[in-house]
Amino acid sequence: MKIHNTLSGKTEELIPQDGKVNMYVCGITPYSASHIGHAMFSVIFDVVRRYLEFKGYDVRHVQNFTDIDDKMINASIETGVKVSDLAESNIIDYLAEMDALNVTRAHEYPRATSEIEKIIEIISGLVEKGYAYAVAGDVYFRVKQDEDYGKLSHRDLESLMAGARVEIDERKEDVMDFALWKSQKPGEPAWDSPWGMGRPGWHIECSAMSIKYLGETIDIHGGGQDLIFPHHENEIAQSESFTDEVPFSRFWMHNGMLRLGEDKMSKSIGNIITVGEALDSFSPDALRLFFLSSHYRSPLLYTEANVASQERALERLKNAVRPAPSTTAGAAIDASASMARFVEAMDDDFNTPRALAAMFELVREINRGKDEGTDVSGAQDTLRELSGVLGVTLDDTNESSDAGPFVQMLVDVRTELRAARQFDIADSIRDRLSGLGVTIEDSPDGTEWRLG
Fold first, then answer.
1. What predicted TM-score, i.e. pTM, was given to this entire model?
2. Which residue from 37, 307, 310, 335 could staple onto 289, CB 3.0 to 4.6 Å apart?
């Protein structure tokens, strides 16, 4: 299988060592409720992990929480809630929301505040090597000391300086030098260090957690495209300078941004839809299908209509795995071609739109088989398996209700009546079911039903 590597700008073959894949994903800063952009990256990398495991690889997945930084401190001041309590409350909510979205829990969720010892160890090592320097309790990384700085964003220092928003600080040797350790300001949480009381900078925490939990070189480092510079660029610089191991990560994967209108969805500009709000309006599986309907590296536009269309797509999947009429004849459907197309798509840089297309081709085969009385059970099992790789559950709440089997029986009878061109009786069944709150939708791919 091949993955697009931001570092090289090319799509390269993934060759895991001993069948193991170590994956680090930059997580959230829990200063307020998570928004659906957070849900999107979580679902995307959940699918990456699920597919790697489907291929037989042993995946170790680590995702951090940035539970101390300027945003956390500012939110604490605004709300009057301690930084640690604010972080923990929002982390609990985030994990519950990800559980609802069927996102597999990472093997580790380290928090920056729990890794101070490792952070100080790395900063001290960088100072000893001359890659960093201390000034009045702060510690900065010497960017110009790192000869290949800019290799991830594919820009040189001059262009980076022109496009970057950098902190103006006369104490720094160079305007591009970035903070590894920040001295304590009045009222801020702080930890003891060789440079005095303070707290870690944003970038150093991920280097410390990745190295501690996954080793000095990992296979995949993931996050949003907005993290390429400066966050991931700085991670590479400080990690490789500390360990002398190159590369820090063999692959860098970056998902596109979720947009609401013309702008990227962001807490900082206030145009957000929280995960909780989205889950109040749509099913978790429809949201997953929405996130996967576009290639992970492409931008995605959020509208209610776009997500609602995935509710209908979900119903098509669920309808396909509902029990077929008991009478079957002829050979069973061969789902191997659909499986092959799915695997080919996912092997090509996790191309989920093409993978979904392969699944819906199989849906059409199953629906045709039902109409013709062919054995579709094996094809249905394949469809459930492929849906599971994408984390989409096809458990139908309608089917689990007391009335579900009877409704399905009437829908099947109606289908047979339509095939026999007895439309008056078929329409009567539809109308009477409608009066009982059952919606029936006919399409070229078959008949779907739902309560409401």
1. 0.87
2. 310
